[in-house]
TrEMBL record:
This is 4-hydroxybenzoate polyprenyltransferase. Its main location: membrane. It is found in: Membrane. The chain crosses the membrane at residues 12-32, 44-63, 90-109, 115-133, 140-164, 184-201, 222-247, 267-287, 299-319. It is a multi-pass membrane protein. InterPro entries: Prenyltransferase_related, UbiA_prenyltransferase, UbiA_sf. CDD domains: PT_UbiA_DGGGPS. The keyword Transferase applies. Keywords: Cell membrane, Membrane, Transferase, Transmembrane, Transmembrane helix.
Length: 326
């Protein structure tokens, strides 16, 4: 069972579920409360949406390991599971079962919220993850961008389905009271942007870590195509842009609360858990030489991503203090 959890990256799946629940209850729910509204998607169907997302991701991890066996045997031979702990046939079947169930749940949730077009997302994601593992991962930048987009979709899909359900159930209330959901959209899209850029940085760092295996198996990653120095420059620029964007948004729109007070809690959290770790990250990327150095850098990126996810809790606390939410 332990090896199965490793195959489907249980820790990543847990974080996907936590992220979606935090976006729902710490961003969307309190903003709706301030506007005199409430969540319209039932807890059951939201759980089905989360499960659909998690199962598709798990299926993607399984098929990725299936096609990565040769490369992983060079880069991380002690962590290869397909062909050792599990047969290749098992990995294929597991991918098919998880992706099929995830797609069916997502399709059902789409019809529940009243937007049948959303049903197309889930089989498309499953197919895209297959193509990523078989083709796009070996192409310059394409694989990095696909995985970054998948990460950005994790919070964004919560927004899409909740807004669709709200529009279906209480649209007249919104129109009569001239209520918009722009604030919710801005916040969730902001988190999606954070997920996209941070995941992109991590993908580039992973490519640097996996340079030997990628070069030997013919993968055209940034380090292989342009060299390690160029890859470091790309990762550092992306990190600098992300930190600049976060502080730009904070000082431009968030620093002063509706009460007139400065939001010191958000500023402290951003600085201590995101900006300073990013500075350390930049230093480590520049100094990194051996694969083990990039492994530690990749771990630091995961911690930054975790801090970004849990800023939702800080956001909820700030709103609760300002608007006296119960």
């Amino acid at each position: 069972m332990y090896n199965l959890f490793k195959l489907v990256r249980l820790n990543n799946l847990v974080m996907i579920a936590i992220t979606q629940y935090l976006v729902r209850f710490c961003i969307i729910a309190p903003i709706l409360t301030i506007k005199g509204l409430s969540l319209q998607m039932s807890e059951f169907w939201f759980a089905m949406l989360v499960l659909a997302t998690v199962l598709l991701a798990a299926g993607g991890y399984a098929i990725n390991d299936y096609f990565d066996t040769k490369t992983d045997s060079i880069n991380r031979p002690n962590r290869v599971l397909v062909g050792k702990a599990f047969t290749r046939q098992f990995a294929i079947k597991l991918h098919f079962v998880l992706s099929t169930i995830g797609s069916l749940l997502g399709i059902a949730a789409s019809f529940y919220v009243g937007v049948w077009q959303y049903a197309l997302i889930f089989p498309l994601v499953g197919g895209l993850l297959w193509l990523y593992s078989t083709t796009y991962k070996a192409q310059l930048l394409v694989g990095n961008l696909i995985i970054s987009l998948m990460a950005a979709m994790v919070p964004l899909i919560v927004l899409m389905f909740e807004v669709a359900r709200i529009t279906k159930t209480i649209l007249p209330v919104l129109q009569q009271n001239q209520i918009t959901l722009n604030a919710i959209a801005y916040w969730v899209v902001g988190f999606s942007f954070f997920a996209f850029i941070t995941t992109f940085i991590r993908e580039v760092v992973k490519d640097m870590e996996d340079f030997d295996g990628d070069a030997e198996t013919g993968r055209n990653t940034i380090p292989v195509a342009f060299g390690m120095t160029a890859a470091k420059v790309v990762a550092c620029i992306a990190a600098a842009v992300e930190v600049a964007a976060i502080y730009g948004i904070y000082f431009g729109y968030l620093s002063v609360l509706p009460t007139g007070e400065v939001d010191w809690l958000s500023l402290s959290y951003i600085t201590l858990t995101i900006a300073i770790p990013f500075a350390i990250l930049l230093f480590r990327i520049v100094k990194a030489k051996a694969p083990s150095h990039y492994r530690l850098t990749s771990l630091l990126i995961k911690l930054i991503m975790l801090a970004g996810v849990f800023y939702t809790v800080i956001f909820y606390v700030v709103l609760s203090n300002v608007y006296q939410l119960s």
